[in-house]
Amino acid sequence: MQPIRVLIVDDHALFAEALAARLGREPDLVILPIAADSRRALALAGTERPQVIVLDMTLGAESGLDVLARVREDHPDVRVVVLTAMSDLDALVQAVRRGAVGWLSKTEGADLVARVIRSAARQGGWIPPEVLGEVLRRLVAGDARDAGGARLLADLTPREREVLQCMVDGLGRAEIAERLGLSANTVRTHTQNLLAKLDMHSALEAITLAMRAGMRPGSG
Q1: Given 112, 117, 171, 198, which residue has the most CB atoms within 10 angstroms?
Q2: Cα dihedral sign, 24-49-127-14
Q3: Exposed/middle/buried for 217, CB within 10 Å: 0-12, 13-18, 19+?
């Protein structure tokens, strides 16, 4: 069996080094240099070609979710297992939706971590059994919301979709007007119209719905 190349991404040096040393004793695991932040994680993912990334959810001021999204975008074949001290079910669901195939607590033993890494490398995964049912329920409910959001977006005019894309890109009204060659008043009218069609009361709600339906920054 081919050795499994594993990249640990964790800013807690003592924990990461201890985990690397323990997993390094497994004959089928090759432990790559540790990454303590997102920049090094993404660099090593490109140069070291890991099959599995073991990712913490908090990397100093950075979110592991952002690293997860970038890894899945740049290296879609890499399998990501979250290993975290967090017990937030919402974070777990978000991680799965962004492509994580496993979720482990840092209180788990190294034997289980190794088993989950092997499962991930074989296209398997692992979610704690005690929360699996609730995670699946939320994922199904989220899929239904996403489908509804996509239907609502289909009702927008091309210009309203352009304005919404600018909002997703983080632009303010004046910046949207400049990008699209419109007056600020026209942008305000389009914004009011699209909020009404989406049955939303704020730009933040509209942006959240748009991103759930697949609209992403810079995709316009």
Answers
A1: 117
A2: positive
A3: exposed
